[in-house]
Write a structure and sequence with these properties.
The protein is mainly β. It has 1 helix and 5 strands, in the order E-E-H-E-E-E.
């Protein structure tokens, strides 16, 4: 399937969940906010939300500091 992630098009296997995508991108050990087609995806549903061909995602990693 073709996805747009942070304005960059990429091709990935069909049927991935948000959690599986984050694992592929090695982002599972970070705090990540996910927006899918202009809708915020709840962290609790990352393992349940299946991505579909043509989805547009924005991934934002949170960084602490002071």
């Amino acid at each position: 399937m073709k996805l747009t992630i942070n304005e960059e098009q990429t091709e990935l296997p069909d049927g991935l969940t948000v959690r599986q995508l984050l694992e592929r991108l090695e982002l599972t050990n970070r705090h990540v906010a996910v927006e899918r087609n202009r809708q915020i995806v709840s962290y609790r549903t990352f393992a349940d939300v299946r991505l579909e061909d043509g989805d547009t995602l924005e991934l934002v990693t949170l960084v602490g500091g002071g």
